[in-house]
Request: fold
Amino acid sequence: MAAPATEHVRNIVLVGQDGAGKTSLAEAMLYVSGKTPRMGTTHDGKSYLDYDAEEIKRKFTISTSIAPVPYKDYKINVLDTSGHPDFIGDALATMQAAEMALFVVDAVAGPQVMTTRLWRECEKMRLSRAVYINHIDRENANFDAAMAALHARFGSRLGAVTIPMGVDKDFQGVIDVIRMKARYHSAGGTDEIIEDIPAEYLDAAAAARDKLCDLVAEADDELMMKYLDGEEQLTQEELESLLDKAIAQELIIPVFVGSTIIMQGVAGLIEDICTYFPHPRSHGRFRQMADGVTVPIDETKRPSAFVFKTVSDPFVGRLSFLKVISGYLEPGIELINARTGKKERLGKIQVMMGKELADVKSAKAGDIVIVPKLSETRSGDTLSVEGDIAIESLELPEPLYPVAIEAVNKNEEDKVGTFLSRTAEADPTIKITRDDQTHQTILHAMGEAQVDLVLGRMKEQAGVEARLVPVRIPYRETIRKAAEAQGRHKKQTGGAGQFGDCWLRLEPYPAGGYEFCDEIKGGVIPNGLIPAVDKGVREAMTEGYLAGYPMVDIKCTVFDGSYHPVDSNEAAFKAAARIGFRAACEKANPIVLEPMASMDIEVAEEYAGAVMGDISTRRGRIIGTDAGEAGNTIIKVRVPYAEVITYTKDLRSMTRGSGSYAIEIDGYEEAPHDVTKKLVEEYEAARAAGN
Reply:
């Protein structure tokens, strides 16, 4: 396909709940347009778009795929995204590249949790929306009920542009309310038949058209006044000329209906996308990071592009998904990455359909293309001729599901680390950290499904097996009262021996951290050996006293001792200090401190009571509540971190996937006796086992 003009490009992102039929709609659009020789299907692994081995196994979309749908001299880039909450980051990143979000809603289930969540995100992004009610031919499908649910959830701006001829097993096709025609496909055919509306559907069609005209008329003030005064109805010409304006201004959110499996309602959707949906230049939403100024889509300017997604392909390497912002991109062009300041040469410009890549000679502003092997470029980067354009990328949700990961074969730890680093570079919703205190590699993800995907791809692509182990909670230990004790180390080995003797005073240190004081008088311990005492105490604090966790908030004073002019040395006094420290700890009322988390949990009001009750069972305290968006409640809590480390899946279960939260470790508090007892028993058992 030749590079289309900017006005003839449509970038449509398919969003909504898993199972609503987003991929089936994209497959049907490809087939009806003649792009593919058959209808791709997901249930049997024969989808053009869900081609990844993990997608075939799980039978749902994981990563965004592109379906380039041709229509006359238009090109529709259909961006098929995941509806699984673990992969919402990929969907949100893809939404940045689109001018329109098409929500696919099941006719039986109606708008579900992910539909609502992504709808709110579209509102924040000011991204135009449309709806396709799918599966109208299913048992118990009800178009009126589905529309009522959409109106209740998302407001009265939704207006049907197609309505069904029959529902359930009686579904035959759709009525085009804009053109007032009946449209349907014959069984198994791709050619659409367009006829006059059957008599039994004329009243329903007229009612839908009146509603449509009510919404569209608001796009023209003068026409609206005449329309409200009843002077005239919208003519066919007026309706069609104003519809695209009304959609761009969000005065109307068009609703389509059909069944992707039997391709009903698909051909008309393609036509209306090209006729009425916004094109890239009319709907610029990219902003400069520095000053917030909107960057227009303009093919007359110097070349620039925004990287909204990267993937690591095991066969061709890294692939960067680019939305061309300005100018033309051609193979061989060099652009500067605004983040790194380095040049990147675009060796190839490609378009993608599912897993198939095809080289193109150029790409114009507004289009979406793939560029392989950009070594320094990541998701969210901007490429331009001078490197002076930096697009503000979307703030993606924080990955709040931590798991500790290690190689099954210890000799392959480096391979695991390399694969994880590459994965995190490609997916901003994955973070990899190394906890120096617990000596664990922590994978922070959106949920269990994303973690399983990483492990599966690591084995498939890198040939390395890794396993999950419990995340070690960063407990601490401290003391509650002052105590003194002697540390004496004496060892004879036949020649020069070892001798160290010191008296230590331990005290709680409210200022936090650790302080060491030297109160030695009269040279009972030489000045040169005092630092060895400090080192010995620090080492002992690192090892802990009760359960092997680092000790904090302690002031240690060395105030007396003795030495031997021959046998005393640094090693001896370090050993003595360790002995004295442990002896003093025994008298100083040692305790375990547990990390506390501050959380803001946002849920629908109907779930607030259950969530607050659950937090109480986790030893948490409710600090207060605030009003959130869309009537939600924000519950502010303080709770032991160990009790909420896997809270992502628990909150989803309690709120049917609608809840969200922010969390941070915010200080430490004394652990209860039962928690301390359990940690001490685990520590002693590990030591007995030689760990």
